[in-house]
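User: I'm curious whether this sequence folds into something compact or stays loose and floppy. Could you predict its structure so I can see for myself?
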Amino acid sequence: MEHFVQTMRFAYYARMDKPKAVTAAAHKLARLIYMMLTKGEEYTDQGQDYYEERYRERVLRQLAQRAEKMGMRLVPGETVVS
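Assistant: Here's the prediction. I'll summarize afterward.
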C-alpha cells in the first residue's frame, strides 16, 4: 500500500515536470505538517484505496454534470469486474 504523499507525488509527476512536482509535493507535505501542529492531531494515512474511491466519486459526479448539460442523464448499470 502506498502512502498518500507518495501517491500525490506520482500524480504530480504525471501532470507537470519533475522540479515543479517535487515542489508541489513538498508544499503538500508542509501543509499536512502545519495542520498537525496547529490542531495537535496525529496524522493518519487513509491509504490509497480511500483516495481512489474519492477520485471515482468525483469523476462520476463530473460525468453526471456534463450529461445534464447535454440534456442527458447517467443510468447506473451492472458492475463489470475484469
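Summary: The chain has a mean pLDDT of 84. The chain has three helices and no strands.
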